Amino acid sequence: xxxxxxITISVIFSLKAPAYxxxxxxxxxxxxxxxxxxxxxxxxxxxxxxxxSGIGGLTCGALLSKRGYKVLVLxxxxxxxxxxxxxxxxxxxxxxxxxxxxxxxKRGPIAFLLKELGLKKDGFFVRNRMRFIxxxxxxxxxxxxxxxxxxxxxxxxxxxNIRAFFDEAKKAYEECYKDADVYGTPLxxxxxxxxxxxxxxxxxxxxxxHFYDWSNKTxxxxxxxxxxxxxxxxxxxxxxxxxxAEPDKAPANGMLAACISYFLYGGYSPKKAQKFADSLxxxxxxxxxxxxxxxxxxxxxxxxxKVKGVxxxxxxxxxxxxxxxxxxxxxxxxxxxxxxxxKGFVDYIKSLKMSPSCLMVSLGADMELSDYPTTIHxxxxxxxxxxxxxxxxxxxxxxxxxxxxxxxxNYHDFPERGTxxxxxxxxxxxxxxxxxxxxxxxxxxxxxxxxxxxxxKTFERYTSMPEGALYSFDQSIExxxxxxxxxxxxxxxxxxxxxxxxxxxxxxxxxxxxxxxxCNWDVEAP
Length: 526
What we know:
- Helix content is 38%, strand content 16%.
- It is of the alpha/beta class and 526 residues long.
- Among the domains are: 31-83 and 273-352 and 475-518, FAD/NAD(P)-binding domain, CATH 3.50.50.60; 109-266, no CATH class.
């Protein structure tokens, strides 16, 4: 009997222990809120209120609307989309930063979202033609085989390693999405336990051998595992600005989706970023939901640490569920009453480091540039050039081009907006970036018709993102993002603040997870 008891305990412990340790911290967040979709509601009463209309919030709202929830989205700006939006200057259209989108392959989260909503990928996205300038050489990347061929010619001594690296990366990436068919997205460990059970977590390493290995290393370690050439490792870090962390601090598994996937399955440019965001908005509105712009939420209303609604000026909107698509610092330090939060948690939120931002120079040029690739990354001079009109000809009048230049910029280096010093600094930096771009497009400065310059402080103004951060918080292994459920019953987070981080594909993942949890993981709910 003792032997049988010992074996039983051993089996139970080996099964339950991994699940216990990954879920221990999140047990206090394992609440559920029933939104009675059948109950008649007043004009200002909703099943779910979403604060902010970035793509994470719109994704959540669209999926919930499809499932019968009465949804309200409140946005402080005059249009929806956050960084996934567009603006017009004279006869030229510019995107507000989005230039390369992943997650559109057959098992990708954005492909899942579009299918769920009955939308067609080709109506919103076009496969990018990419070029990298590295050590004075041009490397064109239209597909993975072309990249492997180019790199093998540049680094013949690494030929076999190059092939092996991308073969392994592809296996790891596909393993990450192995179970995505059920809920449309990969899940973190604690949700694997909640949704699929403890046995699934125990079996995860052997069922996801390659991805599990990438999950336990930094990107620098993975590069060191495969390559000797310092220059080759440097090139493969080319897309790190999309991630916002140095290679020795960037988790390898995060780099798979954020960067390597562009090589595996291509990156896509939005035909018009605003069109994608507006389509999600229109879906919500056609499904008994409402989206209100120029409605800045002042407070998330609570009672006994439970969500009761939100306050916008003198208006009160009621709901048992609120999804904050605002940055977590804004959410917890400005919108949530302080007596709802532990001091230790507040200190943790205050300590979170913001991700990098950038300088964005939008140019309308009297030039025909259709022979150029859509996206050019000059790794030697550390900037990117995007010809948006090569993705969507309606971005510019015929024979002209809509161009976006992206360069490094630090929020804290800029004086206050509107001051003489601020204008001088941003214009000087823009001039330097344009001069660099003339190495690729000769005489560009002589053909500029329209010029608009955005600094980190511009991004902060229009998106309310602290420090104009592109990916919300720092995305290195040193940063632990807040969980998507909070200690306040009924309050969720969606967007770049929470798992899995910044970028269009990651925030779509966050929105899908949030919607699924509100539905108690019943995708047919209610």
